[in-house]
Amino acid sequence: MTVHEDTLLNQPTINLGVAGFGTVGTGLAKAIRENSAWISRRLGKVLHIHTVLVHDLHKKRHFIPDPDTLFTDDPETFLNTPDIDIVVELIGGTGLAYDLITRSLARGTSVVTANKALLAEKGPELFALASKHNTGLYYEASVAGGIPIVQTLKESMAGNRIKNLLGILNGTANYILSEMTSRGLDFSTALNMAKAKGYAEADPTFDIEGIDAAHKLTLLIRLAHGQDYPFSRLAVEGISKVQAVDITLGGEFGYELKLLAHVSSRDEQLQAGVFPAFIAKSHMLAKVDGPFNAILLEGNVVGPIMLYGQGAGDLPTGSAVLADIMALSKEGCAPNNTGFLEPVLPPANILDPLLTSSGHYFRFTVQDRPGVLSALAGIMGQHDISIAQAIQKQTPTPEQGVSIVFLSHKALLRDVQKAMDEIARCAFIMAPTVHYRIM
Ligand code: NAP
Ligand code: HSE
Question: CB–CB of 179/190 below 8 Å?
Fold first, then answer.
C-alpha cells in the first residue's frame, strides 16, 4: 500500500452534493480526482462527490466522479440525501438554484456556488440566511473564474481601504474586443468567433451587454467596500454597438478599448459602473487579451495589485469552487460570508454617475463645410469641456460626411451629455455621435 492510499483510508470523508454537472461541475470533479492526495494532505479529510443533480439523466457523461456517485434528476431526492456535508450549486440561474441554496442553508448545510447572477440579485437575503443558520455561503468562482479575487478582498487585503478597482471581468467580451483590435474585425464576426470557440453562450446577451460583468462587480463592491450596491442601480453599457472604426481611431491616439468594470470611492461616496472605455496601450489592463480576466486593485496601504488569469472554463472555475470547499471543510472554520461582521451590509452611498469625471473620446459624423469644427469646439467650451486632441478623417464616401474626433481632458459626464444633446440638434450632424470614456 502506498503512503497516499494509507492516508486516504484513515481519513474522514466530506460528502459533497453537487447540483449541476456541466462545465464547472465536471471541472470540479476532475480537480478533486487529480489532486486527491494533495487535498487530503492539507485537509486531513477526503472529498467525495456523493450525489449529483442533473437535468438529463440520459446525457452521455465523459467523466464520472466515482463509481458510487449517485446521479439524480430529482431536486427532492438531491435535497433529502442524508449525510451531505456541503452543497455545491453549479446549475446557474435564479430559479432552482435559489431553492436549493435557501433550503440547504436553512437546514444548516453550507453552500458553495459559482452563481454570480443569483448573488448579485439576491445576495443580501442569502447572506442573511446563511448567517442566521451559522452556515457558510462561499462564492469564489462567481467572480473571474479561477482568479482568487474574493479571498483576496475578504482576507488578504482586509486591512486596506480599496480606493480604486478596475477589472476586465468578462472573458467573452474581452475576446471579442481583442479580435476586433488585433484583426480589425467587425463586432458580429468577432462574436461568431467567440461562439465557435465556446466562449460565448448560445444567447450571449449577458456577456456582450455588460450584465455578466455587472453581476460580478456587484459582488466585488460588497467585498471591497462593505456596502450593498443594488445591481439595479449600476450604470451598465455593453459592447454590442462598438464599431471597428473607433477602435482604430482610438488606437491612433495610443488607446485600446476594453469593457471595464469600475468602482472607486470619493468623499465616502461610491462611483461604479460597467462600460467600454479607452485605456492607454501602456496600461497593464490593455495587455490582457483574449478570454482572460484581470483586476487591478489599489489599496490605501498596499498600493496597486493586479490579479490575472482565466475567468472561465472547467478547470479554472473548478479550482475556485474546490478552494471554497476546502475552506469550509477545515475544522473550526467560521463562516465569514460577507467578509464583514455584519451579515447584512448597509446600503451603498452612491455618487450620481453623472457627477463622475474622466477623459472622453467623441466621434462626430458631420458635413464637411466651413464653421463646423469651430461650432463643435464652441459647444464643448460652453459646457466646460476642454479639448486635448482632435483629428478629421474622410469617410469612404463624401455623402457620409467626415469624422471629427475629439479627445477631452477630464470632464463631468453631466456636462458631456449636455454637450452631446446640444450637438445632436445641429443641422451639420449626419449620424449619432460616438462617445467613450478614457480611464
Ligand atoms: P452548464 O455547463 O450549462 O451546466 C449546468 C448544469 O446544471 C448541467 O449539468 C445541467 O444538467 C444542470 N441543470 C440545469 N438545469 C437543471 C435543472 N432544472 N435540474 C437539474 N439540473 C439542471 O453550466 P456551467 O457553465 O457549468 O455554469 C454553472 C454555474 O457556474 C453558473 O452559475 C455559471 O454562471 C457559473 N460559472 C460558470 C463559468 C464557466 O466557465 N462555465 C465560470 C464562472 C461561473 P445536464 O448536464 O443534465 O444538462
Ligand atoms: N461568460 C463568462 C465570461 C464566464 O465570458 O467571462 C463565466 O463567468
Answer: yes
